[in-house]
Amino acid sequence: MAKEQVKITDVILRDAHQSLIATRLRTEDMLPACAMLDGIGYWSLECWGGATFDACLRFLKEDPWERLSKLKAALPKTRLQMLVRGQNLLGYRHYSDDVVRAFIHKAAQNGMDVFRIFDALNDIRNLRTAIEAAKESGKHAQGTICYTTSPVHDVLSFVTLGKDLANLGCDSIAIKDMAGLLTPYVTSELVKALKDTVDLPLHLHSHATSGLAEMCQLKAIEAGCRHIDTALSSWSGGTSHPPTEAQVITLRGTEYDTGLDLDKLQAVNKYFAEIRKKYRRFESEFTGIDTQVHIFQVPGGMISNLANQLKERNALDRIGDVYKEIPEVRKDLGYPPLVTPTSQIVGTQAVLNVLTGKRYETITNEVKRYLQGGYGKAPAAVNYELQKKAIGKEDVMDCRPADLIPPELDKLRQEIGELALNDEDVLSYAMFPEVGKLFLEQRSNGALVSEPLELESRSDDSIKKAPTEFNVALHGESYHIKVTGAGPKNQMLRHFYFMVDGVPEEIVVETLDEIVLEGGTQGAVKGTIASKRRKPSEPGDVFVSMPCNVLEVLVKVGQQVSAGQGVMVTEAMKMETEITAPVSGTVKAVHIVKGEPANPDEVLIEIAP
């Protein structure tokens, strides 16, 4: 019985809420359940990594390192597990080896036991340093195969990767089916082939998007896999995972019996079922089965992002066109598996291609970096003409990208300075420079305010309330606004939260009567309000094709520019795009500054030919 027993990793504390409520589950709602979770007998609990680090800093205003140490203290009998993006760690770029090693070592010191390490391109070179660091820390290093389908991905290619992972010293191998693309009989074939080749425990992680995950797990078990990832039933299904209780019942009384107590599982599930109600404003609209993933290769996590991007452009009716464009972009990029960050890279470029009406008229900086080899080796040959257009005469990297990154940990320490109280703070800044720095600044000022879960309520019916849901017209675009909450009153900086066409947004308002301008004028807002920008009508008008934020303005009035020269850098859906001059000439006007939002079809920079 013990030899065949299936062991379970529950993802309730990480991937389940990342998949269903945009990673918003707070530590304060995890800790009360920890004693129950710790008594169940899971092989491990996935509780960190992925998008949790970003969400803690950006939205919850929690220190992710503090979350880890608290969970370790509350779960003394259970292994803690995290997801690591190889050389990307938890961010969206490759880091130097000294940063990777420092991050893994610190995570281990703070309580992490199992490191599931993957690379979006399955490039073994991008996994080596993180695997070595986990082993150096005396922890479990789990090498990961990102499963996908394409003309160049087959069982043999995945088995080859499995052998490479074993040669790097991995303690186990995970098959990561992030998009729910596995089918039952392919799962059986893949597991058997790996078992025949690699003498390591196999783990299966499969999302329930297409409705096949439970069958895939059963076929994997029959083929020799003894570790599966599940989520407590109240947080399972859809873009999440198979339900823990159902899989325990399925295997009960068989040679694969998990040995887990169903009554204990149902008790802790009851707790999480109630907790989920608190987060209803973050619920994904895509909670059911979606078999389109097998047609358009769109993972469940991408679907809501794509819909939000198109809503912002009043172009949700074009989502079918985007679905069709994604496989084409993926083919042009050499068939990368669609997982962070490649899913964002491919998805955002597909949206741009559809909305501009001309393929690759605008190319994101991430696509340029990808085509230059900045993320590693593509699984297949990329579109040569696209590559030439994107990178021009620049060389293509033929080495491991991190080989070109000098040590940067000391530099990061100097940049963040006294805001960092320890190495963990430095690493938070390294992962997300803008968000991490803001978090540390707000912490030092005592201004950390988590986004609210519910709307503020007033019991005094005699007080006339402002509307909380309305439509507005701005710069020629119509937006549906729903106020979802506000931070505490009587503070100099007050946070307000909105849903703008279904997308969560936050603004910080500085109280008017606390602003004092030069000359002693009180009760006015410092700065200027930008005048309404006109619609593009001239050859030299610079504008964007989708809503975004401006990261950098690269030109100033009076400057001479050439056609194709970068004039500003924008960001949308965590992807950066360099906007170029449409003509050669002189910069006549600049109507945007760093940090401002920009909407489509409004002139941001004027160039006189």
Kindly summarize this structure in a few lines.
The chain is of the alpha/beta class. Helix content is 34%, strand content 18%.
Describe this structure in words.
It is a single chain. With 609 residues, the protein is of the alpha/beta class. 34% of the residues lie in helices and 18% in strands. An eight-stranded parallel barrel has the order 1-2-3-4-5-6-7-8, surrounded by five helices. Helix 6 runs parallel beside helix 7, helix 15 packs across helix 16 and helix 17 crosses helix 18. It is globular, with a radius of gyration of 25 Å.
State the main characteristics.
alpha/beta; 8-stranded parallel barrel; 21 helices; 609 residues; 18% strand
Q: Strand percentage, roughly? A: 15-25%
Helicity range of the residues? 25-40%
Distance between the termini: 79 Å
Low-confidence stretches: 457-464, 512-531
Helix/strand/pairing category = alpha/beta
Shape: globular
Strand tally: 20
Report Rg.
25 Å
- Walk across the major sheet and give the strand order: 1-2-3-4-5-6-7-8
Major sheet summary line: 8 strands, parallel, barrel
Number of helices: 21
* Average residue-wise pLDDT: 87
